[in-house]
């Protein structure tokens, strides 16, 4: 029940107080993000951890002036692959083969089948699929932050093309997808902090099929 209680505690923090998040808590959150499941284990995204004040100011300017970006201890940016390729998939599978100590050709058949499925779907589908994998990691990071009593603000409210420029993501074959400021709530100045958490009632949210 500890996770449920942590999720009840968390909310989309609207005002942070600038307090630093200890490194061990940040590491815990990032480890949860890294351990997230992804389709075929490809992890087609990277997480950028930003604490540089000047860069946070620039990010705020392209995030609709949301103060959490500059008041946060760290700002995490999930950037997904802009497309799949046989080379990228092979690199992931090669690492898996090396780590598991299995024959070099053990995943060849699966790799060929996977790329045969992905290749004809086109780059737009690729980018959208990769972004959906990033959302899974993002969700686990939010849950881990709640466990650590670290506040977080899930954000899609930014201009992706501008964030891509700031972080030189295009050169890396990546596109920004999600932003997550981490820090601590400013209880005196956050209008949302004491409002009741509202979710769909259980009997409307859950449909059981037996």
TrEMBL record:
Keywords: Flavoprotein, FMN, Oxidoreductase
Family stated for the protein in its record: Belongs to the nitroreductase family.
Protein name listed in UniProt: NAD(P)H-dependent oxidoreductase
Top-level taxon of origin: Bacteria
Reported cofactor(s): FMN
TM region positions: none
Stored InterPro entries: Nitroreductase (IPR029479), Nitroreductase-like (IPR000415)
Pfam families cross-referenced by the UniProt entry: Nitroreductase
Residue ranges occupied by any Nitroreductase domain in the UniProt entry: 7-184
């Amino acid at each position: 029940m500890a996770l449920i209680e942590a999720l009840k505690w968390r909310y989309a923090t609207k005002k942070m107080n600038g307090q630093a998040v200890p490194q061990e808590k940040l590491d815990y959150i990032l480890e949860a993000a890294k351990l997230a499941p992804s389709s075929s284990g490809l992890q087609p995204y990277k997480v950028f951890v930003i604490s540089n004040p000047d860069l946070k100011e620039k990010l705020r300017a392209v995030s609709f002036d949301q103060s959490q970006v500059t008041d946060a201890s760290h700002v995490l940016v999930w950037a997904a692959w802009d497309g799949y390729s046989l080379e990228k998939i092979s690199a992931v599978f090669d690492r898996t083969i090396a780590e598991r100590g299995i024959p070099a050709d053990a995943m060849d058949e699966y790799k060929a089948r996977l790329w045969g499925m992905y290749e004809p779907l086109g780059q737009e589908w690729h980018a959208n699929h990769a972004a959906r994998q990033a959302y899974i990691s993002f969700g686990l990071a939010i849950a881990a932050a709640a466990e650590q009593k670290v506040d977080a603000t899930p954000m899609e409210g930014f201009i992706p093309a501008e964030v891509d420029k700031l972080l030189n993501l295009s050169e890396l074959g990546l596109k920004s997808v999600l932003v997550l400021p981490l820090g601590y709530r400013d209880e005196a100045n956050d209008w949302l902090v004491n409002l009741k958490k509202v979710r769909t009632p259980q009997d409307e949210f859950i449909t059981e099929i037996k």
